[in-house]
Amino acid sequence: MKILVTGGAGYIGSHVVKALLESKKHEIVVIDNLCKGSKKAIDALKTVGEFEFIDMSLEDVLRLEELFKTHKFEAIIHFAAFIEVFESTVKPLKYYLNNTSNAINLITLANKYGVKNFVFSSTAATYGEPDTAQVSETSPQNPINAYGRSKLMTEWVLKDVALANKNFRYAILRYFNVAGASSDGLLGQNYPNATHLIKVATQTISGRRDKMSIFGDDYDTKDGTCIRDYIHIEDLADAHIYALDYIKENDSEIFNVGYGKGYSVKEVIDAAKEVGGDFRVEISDRRDGDPACLIANSDKLRKLTGWSPKRDDIKLIISSALKWEENIKE
Ligand code: UFG
């Protein structure tokens, strides 16, 4: 297939491009405006296989349309988005413009030019504060921050468009907490000023930070810190390939992507200390927008597509992130 990947220079996007190139089945065009993505990731991917890279923003609709005119895409995998929960609470419009409005630009062109398959990076943040320990795809979606709402709106757009256009199919992937780096050390999280827990912990181990904070230890959880379902980036990348193969032959579908297991912030920090040695941690105030607990029920993805995680091990996730952190030169 000829596949357009938006945000392919980003953390998740680059790992998916790598998996697609390794499968040697597809022709890939990557667009990324490099505002968060990294040119280094593109250069690294060029060592894996051939693909076209275009430095382009989704806001540039005229240029984007030229791309659709010159390429006959059969699928789009759409990553380009902002992802930080806290930032979305202080800069909501930044999120609605990029994650919702720019996504609509892309979906509009996908429809105009007859693209049949659309894989969308959605998020567990669309569930908000779930009532149940594990969330399934049918759990209520009541996002508690602008990030979650910006992604949920795009989900709605995709669903409505697919109802109106029977030739258009989507796979909505709701990611839980993605972490780690590629096992061969080629790719990892390049993002400057990263805020994600495992990234921050590995930066502290490797001396890029002198300490880190636990954002709140008074949540209603087993040890008072927030619980998340951490998934290795390579298992998440594989899920895209399975989901795309699935919608090509079947109908549109929504899939949670996680392991179904929760770790508290304190448990992740303890595991990081086991992997990389002791480091300074302090307790700070809660961070706005954080739900207490998010754990995936990903049975549907396993059952319908045959996806099966290979790296379900928190220490393996942390050690791959640490290896990456120790090798990068910022
Ligand atoms: N945390 C700390 N200290 C830090 C960083 C994070 O205590 O230095 C805590 C957070 O408060 C939260 C947990 O660690 O309780 C996880 O935080 P992350 O920033 O790593 O991730 P989030 O859960 O906020 O969000 C991530 C993605 C979202 C996605 C969500 C799904 O950024 O895109 O996971 O669960 F929606």
UniProtKB/TrEMBL annotation:
Record keyword tRNA processing present: no
A Pfam entry, by short name: Epimerase
Recorded catalytic activity of this chain's protein: UDP-alpha-D-glucose = UDP-alpha-D-galactose
Cofactor(s) required for function per UniProt: NAD(+)
Pathway: Carbohydrate metabolism; galactose metabolism
Keyword Isomerase (UniProt): yes
GO biological process: galactose catabolic process via UDP-galactose, Leloir pathway
EC number(s) from the headed UniProt entry: 5.1.3.2
Keywords of the record: Carbohydrate metabolism, Isomerase, NAD
SUPFAM superfamilies in the record: NAD(P)-binding Rossmann-fold domains (SSF51735)
Molecular functions (GO terms): UDP-glucose 4-epimerase activity
TM spans (from-to): none
Domain NAD-dependent epimerase/dehydratase: 3-258
Record-linked InterPro entries: Epimerase_deHydtase (IPR001509), NAD(P)-bd_dom_sf (IPR036291), UDP_G4E (IPR005886)
Family: Belongs to the NAD(P)-dependent epimerase/dehydratase family.
Family matches, as PANTHER family: UDP-ARABINOSE 4-EPIMERASE 1, UDP-GLUCOSE 4-EPIMERASE
Assembly mode: Homodimer.
Name of the featured protein: UDP-glucose 4-epimerase
Organism: Campylobacter corcagiensis
High-level lineage: Bacteria, Pseudomonadati, Campylobacterota, Epsilonproteobacteria, Campylobacterales
Gene name of the encoded protein: galE
